[in-house]
Write a structure and sequence with these properties.
mainly alpha, globular
């Protein structure tokens, strides 16, 4: 993944939660990543709005089925993403692999196809924030993405630790 050799490719606050729980980074590092991720998301949304002169009406993302299916979709999709990232990019068993970008990308693609119709398929709180800044997601639904994505990321970290107790 682009930037992996520089920063560890931390572009998603939920995955950063998973990596923190897994024990590969410390809290002070996680905080720095979260600040950079959110600031980057807001700046990107503002630049995109300015360059492309677009703005949504805030009605996008959560389907007419409501917030519960959207929350479950974000939890499951983010769990899958975080769990795959931990297994292909941080596990001692896959050290030195060259396929982790494909595994992660195809996980996002599959989850987007499966869950996108319920929640918009953010699987990343920074993406949800940027989409809200741009007006495409409703600020009234931001809790779905914060709770769902961070919860899914935490679940991914916990499950990885339980299934890989010797992988420190």
């Amino acid at each position: 993944m682009a930037g992996g050799h520089i920063s560890g490719a931390h572009y998603n606050p939920a995955v950063t939660v998973a990596v923190l729980i897994r024990g590969r980074i410390k809290m002070n590092e996680a905080i720095m990543y979260w600040v950079a991720q959110i600031v980057g998301a807001v700046v990107a949304a503002l630049i995109a709005k300015m360059v492309f002169n677009t703005s949504g009406d805030g009605s996008g993302a959560v389907s007419e089925l409501g917030s519960t299916p959207a929350l479950v979709a974000e939890i499951l999709g983010t769990f899958a993403l975080a769990y795959v990232v931990l297994n292909v990019a941080t596990s001692k068993d896959t050290e030195g692999n060259s396929y982790y970008g494909l595994a992660i990308g195809f996980t996002v693609l599959a989850c987007g196809y499966i869950f996108g119709k319920y929640s918009g398929g953010a699987f990343n709180p920074a993406v949800a924030i940027s989409q809200s800044v741009a007006g495409f997601f409703s600020w009234g639904h931001i809790w779905i993405y914060l709770v769902g994505c961070l919860g899914g990321g935490a679940l991914g970290g916990i499950v990885f630790k339980l299934l890989n107790p010797d992988d420190k």
